[in-house]
Fold 2-iminobutanoate/2-iminopropanoate deaminase.
Amino acid sequence: MKKIIHTKEAPAPIGPYNQAVLAGDTLYISGQIALDPVTGELNLNSIEEETTQVMQNLEAILKAAGMSFDHVIKSSIFISDMNNFGKINEVYGRYFAEDNAPARETVEVANLPKFVNVEISMIAGR
């Protein structure tokens, strides 16, 4: 059985999908971009601020499901320019202990929703 996870602490979906779906003990979080959940505006001031907003959105969804970054099993990072990898990785790394970090892939793509620079999705489990 699946349970839809939704929180006002993260941006509302901009299409026919949900913020996350809990299936048993596994949480599937949709890709998050740097939308501020309060203003609905994109936070594109710098790649560091953009990535921080993405991680804050993911954290809010994890909390809504009763989880934290410690529960993340796998992350998928999509970026529009691999030259930003180092800065994105630095911000991303602040949210995980190295000995408990999830599996991950980082992929450069031609474009992302709303022409942002980074989108991250996650799978977490209890």
Summary: The mean pLDDT is 97.
